[in-house]
Amino acid sequence: xxxxxxxxxxxxxxxxxxxxxxxxxxxxxxxxxxxxxxxxxxxxxxxxxxxxxxxxxxxxxxxxxxxxxxxxxxxxxxxxxxxxxxxxxxxxxxxxxxxxxxxxxxxxxxxxxxxxxxxxxxxxxxxxxxxxxxxxxxxxxxxxxxxxxxxxxxxxxxxxxxxxxxxxxxxxxxxxxxxxxxxxxxxxxxxxxxxxxxxxxxxxxxxxxxxxxxxxxxxxxxxxxxxxxxxxxxxxxxxxxxxxxxxxxxxxxxxxxxxxxxxxxxxxxxxxxxxxxxxxxxxxxxxxxxxxxxxxxxxxxxxxxxxxxxxxxxxxxxxxxxxxxxxxxxxxxxxxxxxxxxxxxxxxxxxxxxxxxxxxxxxxx
Length: 365
Prior knowledge:
The chain has helices spanning 12-21, 37-47, 55-59, 76-85, 100-113, 127-137, 174-190, 282-285, 296-311, 320-339; strands at residues 3-8, 27-33, 51-52, 66-69, 89-92, 117-119, 144-152, 195-202, 212-218, 224-230, 240-247, 250-254, 258-263, 276-281. The chain is of the alpha/beta class. It folds into 2 domains: 3-122 and 295-326, NAD(P)-binding Rossmann-like Domain (Rossmann fold), CATH 3.40.50; 124-288 and 328-339, Dihydrodipicolinate Reductase, domain 2. An 8-stranded mixed β-sheet has the order 8-9-10-7-11-12-13-14. It is globular.
């Protein structure tokens, strides 16, 4: 039987998730939810879907089994907790919450209830990044010394009236909304950073939040890392995420289209790879999906969510516990930037609204 799911938040990401999950055979969309009645009503009318304006009313639906939450980050913690307490499986957009402690608590609650809890870090479902992780874990580079995680894009190129992404305390800004992706890849490979130094959060066009983020990180085993992210980069057409890893046995570089691996032979050679350069492309590394929209990774992550629910296991990838590592890295960067005086007057996550009143209003990402 299909899994009865509701999509919460009908902004850009919510509509993307709705289009995909509505086409997957593992799911049946039984409701959509958003505080904007005009948006919800139009989608319900022309999409033949059931619109519920209030999140608390949605959670009371007797046949509901799972929710996809695509609201501003500030609303994630109370909304996810409420869903888990109702025994619902949860797919939540990234970052999970504005607090690593909150994310860890939600991970523990999901595990306690035996629920699938997954976060939308879609890069983990891109074959080039997955192959990079496999090779590093297999020791292809030998002892790793350094990782560089980058992301650039033309998101904010002039002063404009901001959406929630440009508002302090809402989970907006380059660090939360953009840098979270390459940070998540770095923590996927090397775990939670042990420390952060030299963090810089710069404003360019945004009035309240950061547009550029740079930081140096330290991971277990002596691995160092650098983060370089700028969402006011007009030189790229769309978001460009890159990962580079140096080790005693060579170097690995990848983005969403190809992976380049250089091996010296100082470490055991993995099957299919020899000394010197090997290039593998996304077309060889990413398996097909049942429904394509935007990129295979967006469908693959929701297919994985469905498989995990059907199998009665934890998240296939991007579980809450791993996402808490990324949230912790974000906190470390903010703290390091504040200590160095480079965070400016950006409001901290502690200033975000409390639980009261959040569940009754749902805004699309």
